[in-house]
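Hi there,

I know you've been waiting on this one. I reran it after we fixed the sequence typo, so this is the corrected version. Both the input and the resulting structure follow.
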Amino acid sequence: MTGKVSSSEFAGHRVLVTGGSRGIAAELSYQLAMRGANVAVNFSAAADSSFGRAEAAQVLVDRILADGGNAICVEQDLMQANGGILLAERAQETAGPIDTLVLSASIQYHVPFLLQSPADVSDQIRINLQSNIELLQTLMPKMASSGYGRILAIGSVQEVAPSPEMPIYAMTKAAMKNLIENLAIQAAPKGIMINNIAPGLIQTDRNAFRRSNPSDWDKMQSKANPVGRAGQPQDLTALALHLLSPENTFTTGATIYATGGGHLPIGTGEYAELILPQNIESKRKNLKISS
């Protein structure tokens, strides 16, 4: 997590960040608080415990408070029926009317399509879609009546480059992108800006299992995108903060790919080298020129 930055850009705004205790959402929760927002950090005790980080939410909130920000923990398992509604109500009871919403909580099962059980499918639809719908339906009316709202979904490169390893997860992220675009058209006249960031490979505790073998992880990073590395949560911060900012009064319905270029199609199957002018003569010997 990056260091303390203090400003008042989000002063007076109340933000709910789902799944805010870890990964990309934790970094964003911290940065929003350091810019004056009152942040409600949603977490699931069961989910955090499964990653060996049962105290992640409280550790994050303690750090925010120690650095002069304002934040609270709001525990709610979104797997629960009506979990999104319950979270929205609980967050507003403790933090006040929410005018800024980050939809980050999600679940993914690394199981081929034909091997995914009905429970696997329903779990991912429940967390990745249904809970978000519940949150939006509960929180957007107050945003509309006040004439102000900022909503950001944390999507995935799999919206456009679905992995056979996570087919249902990829489907749910594509569905959320569609919903964001649909709602953005309807909500813009009410002063609500709704956008989507689609990250590529980002190094978080969610993919810690991939780093058990450092050489395999290095190979995965090198092939993930033209930049040649996994992103870090802070690589998304500036972009997310702009889309959520009160100063963003024009960008809505956008999906921005934060992938290191990994979402771009490569016809040859490998990333091409940029040929610089000073090397052109030596390189021309290896080029095939047809007429």
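Quick highlight: The chain has a mean pLDDT of 89.

Best,
R. S.
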